[in-house]
Design brief:
single chain, 37% helix, 6 helices, two-stranded antiparallel sheet, alpha+beta
């Protein structure tokens, strides 16, 4: 993960307290747009959880709080708690949180450590060679973000088709883990 923008480093405590006291909303905050743009640049406009791309328009992208701001209001403006997210993942997750949930910016995170991709079905499967703890965390993450819903399966299979029939760069595709 990149370093926090200066405006957050200088104000995250104050803004977190104001958010907790209901004096400050997150999405209406003057710096919301700047936060989202920083996250878009950091992720190359991919969802931090499902890796869908590109995320366009207000209705298709948002800033996700890994630890939900409704339960952890003081973390509302903490950089390592903020992720670019598609509305599909955010809606599936809601305010659910478990400390075992996989955090995509961890240095020890890699898709292949926890998951495998089933190119026939378009599903993300749990890596059977992972430790029992890693399998548990992978399963929790799949369920929390509903990453194997039928819609994602269809889109992933179409992405494979598009890649095979055109000259794409991997960075320009959704679900980059498919091609690793």
């Amino acid at each position: 993960m990149t370093e926090a923008p200066d405006f957050l480093k200088e104000n995250y405590i104050k803004w977190g307290r104001e958010f907790e006291e209901k004096k400050l909303g997150f999405h209406k905050h003057l710096k919301y747009q700047a936060i989202r743009i920083e996250l878009e640049n950091m992720t190359n406009n991919h969802c931090s959880f499902c890796d869908s791309y590109p995320l366009f328009g207000k209705a298709n992208r948002t800033v996700e709080h890994f630890r939900p701001k409704s339960r952890f209001p003081l973390l509302a403006f903490v950089w390592h708690n903020l992720f670019l997210c598609c509305m599909t993942c955010q809606k599936a997750r809601g305010a659910k949180y478990d400390k075992k949930l996989l955090k995509p910016d961890r240095d020890d995170y890699s898709f292949s450590r926890y998951f495998t991709f089933n190119s026939k079905e378009g599903t993300i499967d749990i890596n059977k060679n992972a430790s029992p703890q890693d399998q548990e965390r992978a399963n929790l993450t799949l369920e929390t973000y509903d990453l194997n819903n039928k819609g994602w399966q269809i889109v992933r299979l179409k992405e494979i088709e598009a890649f095979r029939s055109n000259n794409y760069q991997i960075r320009d595709l959704s679900f980059r883990f498919i091609f690793e």
